[in-house]
Design brief:
The protein is an alpha/beta fold. The protein has 7 helices and 4 strands, in the order αβαβαβααβαα. Helix 3 runs parallel beside helix 5. The model has no long low-confidence stretch (mean pLDDT 91).
C-alpha cells in the first residue's frame, strides 16, 4: 500500500498557462477561464494573464517572466489581437521562439472572425501560428457558435 508521500509524488505538476489576448476580448477570455476553472481547481493548470499584475509591479517584466515560464500559451485571436503591436512584437514573438525551441506549446484559438487566409498567405507574424492545430474545430470563431459553450 502506497503512503501519502508516494501518492503526492505521483501527482503531476500543474501546467503553467499564459493567455495572450487583446483587452477588447476580455469578456471572451473570462468565458474561457470559466470553462477551464475545473482544471485550475484540480491543480492541473496554473493560468496567468496580465490582469494578475498587481499595482506597483512592472507590467512588462511580469508579462515577460510569465511568458518565459509558460508551458502552454493560448493565443486568443481576433482583429484586436492582430492589431496590437505589443502582442505581435513581444508576446507572439517570444511564444513562437519558445515553441520553435521546444520549450512551450502554442495553441491559437479564434475568438472573433478575422481573415485567416490573408494572414496565412503573407509575411504576417501569425502565418507561422496558423500552421498549428487550433481551436475551435475548423477555426470557426468562438463568438459565432450557438450556443457559445459548444465552441
Amino acid at each position: 500500500m502506497a503512503d501519502s508521500s508516494t501518492a503526492a509524488a505521483a501527482t503531476p505538476a500543474p501546467v503553467s498557462l499564459f493567455y495572450s489576448y487583446a483587452h477588447e476580448d476580455e469578456a471572451l477570455l473570462d468565458g474561457l477561464q470559466r470553462h477551464l476553472k475545473v482544471l485550475a481547481l484540480n491543480g492541473q493548470i496554473l493560468p496567468w494573464h496580465d490582469r494578475k499584475i498587481v499595482p506597483g509591479q512592472a507590467w512588462d517584466t511580469e508579462i515577460h517572466q510569465a511568458l518565459q515560464a509558460a508551458e502552454l500559451v493560448l493565443l486568443l485571436l481576433s482583429v484586436d489581437f492582430v492589431s496590437s503591436d505589443y502582442i505581435l512584437g513581444v508576446e507572439l514573438k517570444t511564444a513562437l521562439a519558445r515553441a520553435q525551441a521546444g520549450t512551450t506549446t502554442v495553441v491559437p484559438i479564434v475568438l472573433r472572425p478575422l481573415d485567416l487566409e490573408a494572414l496565412r498567405g503573407g509575411t504576417h507574424p501569425l502565418a507561422a501560428v496558423l500552421q498549428r492545430q487550433g481551436l475551435p474545430r475548423d477555426l470557426k470563431p468562438v463568438n459565432t457558435w450557438r450556443p457559445r459553450d459548444t465552441a
